[in-house]
Amino acid sequence: MAVSTKNQSSRRPQGRQVGYARVSTDEQATQAQEMELRAADCDLIVEEHGSGASRSRPALAKLLREIDPGDTLVVVRLDRLARSVSHLLEVIEDLTAKGAHFRSLRDPIDTTTPQGMFSLQVLGAVAQLERALISERTKAGIRAAKAKGKLPGNPGLRDRRPEALAKMSATQKAAYGHRIQASANQWLPIVRRMRPDHTWDDIARVLRQRGLDWTPERLRRAVKWLVNEHLADPDLLKKSPPRLPEDRLMTLIAGIHGSNPGLTLREIALQLERLHERTPRGGSRWSPSSVKNLLDRARRLGLAPSSTDTP
């Protein structure tokens, strides 16, 4: 038995064990959960106060953005982490995308073991069945209502009742916040590198080149939401300073290089052409030497990391 336990522990990831403890109200304490998480050798414990039904989990969102590959997110029970099976699967999918793992101390879910992954697949199948059943029940209810001459939908919304409209607005805002937090790790690091030196239009164009569908207006709105929720620095919303065309190109190239230091000069030139950026002389074709001149200038001004190696 001792040998088996040793082998099992040796298969565990070598990263940190990060505990997550949540209670529903400020009056409740996370002490009991913290004791179990410390006993499970957690290196760090993140606390959250919020209802289980609430979509707003700023501490969890921040943890998911900052967790490192090889780390394991640990909870005492599944209900401390997720509102539903589908929410649980979303969180685990985010962790997997970052190379991190998940473990629940009181449930058979541990993505570092084959048994835990099997349990997760079972949960996924249950969630899919649950969604199918809900869809069928909704369709059956609509058919029955129409057969009785009733209109489908919320009567309060049809009648424009203030309380129904307020509830719908709150639900939409919560869903919007959840979407922003779920995708922030894909685009927020680039925004942090480029703001406020670059305009929202410049950043949106860089993000679109990376396959992310953003407009300047939607991007600014998303960052404003994060700032209001204290999840991003207010300086990101500062007005971009006016710049000469060549200065703007210099900072744009520094931003592209900073978001992906592995790009070669030629690859940066191709990105600028795809962005339809004109060269300092007004041409449409960029040469690696033009990129290098502007990047070197950005380095001298401290806008890009100094490097002895040419990208």
UniProtKB/TrEMBL annotation:
<feature type="domain" description="Resolvase/invertase-type recombinase catalytic">
    <location>
        <begin position="16"/>
        <end position="149"/>
    </location>
</feature>
<dbReference type="Pfam" id="PF00239">
    <property type="entry name" value="Resolvase"/>
</dbReference>
<dbReference type="InterPro" id="IPR006118">
    <property type="entry name" value="Recombinase_CS"/>
</dbReference>
<keyword id="KW-0233">DNA recombination</keyword>
<feature type="region of interest" description="Disordered">
    <location>
        <begin position="1"/>
        <end position="27"/>
    </location>
</feature>
<dbReference type="InterPro" id="IPR006119">
    <property type="entry name" value="Resolv_N"/>
</dbReference>
<protein>
    <submittedName>
        <fullName>DNA invertase Pin-like site-specific DNA recombinase</fullName>
    </submittedName>
</protein>
<feature type="compositionally biased region" description="Polar residues">
    <location>
        <begin position="1"/>
        <end position="12"/>
    </location>
</feature>
<dbReference type="InterPro" id="IPR036162">
    <property type="entry name" value="Resolvase-like_N_sf"/>
</dbReference>
<dbReference type="InterPro" id="IPR050639">
    <property type="entry name" value="SSR_resolvase"/>
</dbReference>
<feature type="active site" description="O-(5'-phospho-DNA)-serine intermediate">
    <location>
        <position position="24"/>
    </location>
</feature>
<keyword id="KW-0229">DNA integration</keyword>
<keyword id="KW-0238">DNA-binding</keyword>
